[in-house]
Amino acid sequence: WDPNTNCCKNWTGIACDANGRVNSLIVINADDINNEFPSSVGNLPFLEVLQFSALPHVSGEIPSSLAKLTNLVHLDLSLNNLTGPIPSFLTLLKGLNFIDFSSNSLSGPIPSSLSQLTNLISVNFGANKLSGPIPPSLGRLKSLTGLMLYANRFSGSIPSSLGQLSRLNNLNLRANHLTGSIPNSLSKLKNLNLLVLDTNRFSGPIPSFLGRLRKLTLIVLANNRFSGPIPASLGNLPALSLLDVSHNKLTGSIPEFPKSLTNLDVSFNKL
């Protein structure tokens, strides 16, 4: 970036609106950036897209100056070395529809106030050090299609309120410390394609209602404590291509599955 040139025309990763105001800033895969996240980004009030990702030497907390970016729609800070909490000031960014903070070292809980961002379509907090329960208030995010909270330290059960996310197609809670059973309220997730709950401490039966979620293509429930039979209703899923229920306490026989199922793992059970 040469300060003597026009940033809107000559700077890689910069885009401007018709009035010459910076509305998109994308910086990815830059090994030579060695510092905390620049708070000066908050001085770009017309920014709609902010992506600072795959910058392994960018560290520190997410700066509070980002609270000034009230036009922000897309916020991607993935694959860095950021620490500290998920900031509560995100609730000031009412237009956000995409948040990706995955693959950092963020810690603490998910702020329940995140539910105020009712335009959110996709939330990815995977591969951090987040803890505490999954906030039931996330069930208010009615536009959400993707909720990815994998590889953290979340505990407690799946909130039944997640069944209110009628547009959800990707629910990934793998590799946490979650317990309890799969709540019946998830039977309302008619648009669900991907259900990934492996490597937790879930117990109880695999619910037969999964066989009514006809858009499911992938179910991963491995490395839990599920017991009882594999529901025969799973054989009614016309698009199911992968089912992994290995490393549980399942008993009974293996039901018939559709030809679409090309990857089946039922190993390390009592079938």
From TrEMBL:
Pfam families: LRR_1. GO terms for cellular component: membrane. The keyword Signal applies. GO terms for biological process: defense response. Keywords: Cell wall, Disulfide bond, Leucine-rich repeat, Membrane, Plant defense, Repeat, Secreted, Signal. The keyword Ubl conjugation does not apply. It is a peripheral membrane protein. It is found in: Membrane; Secreted, Cell wall. Belongs to the polygalacturonase-inhibiting protein family. This is Polygalacturonase inhibiting protein 11. It comes from Medicago sativa subsp. varia (Alfalfa). The lineage of its organism: Eukaryota, Viridiplantae, Streptophyta, Embryophyta, Tracheophyta.
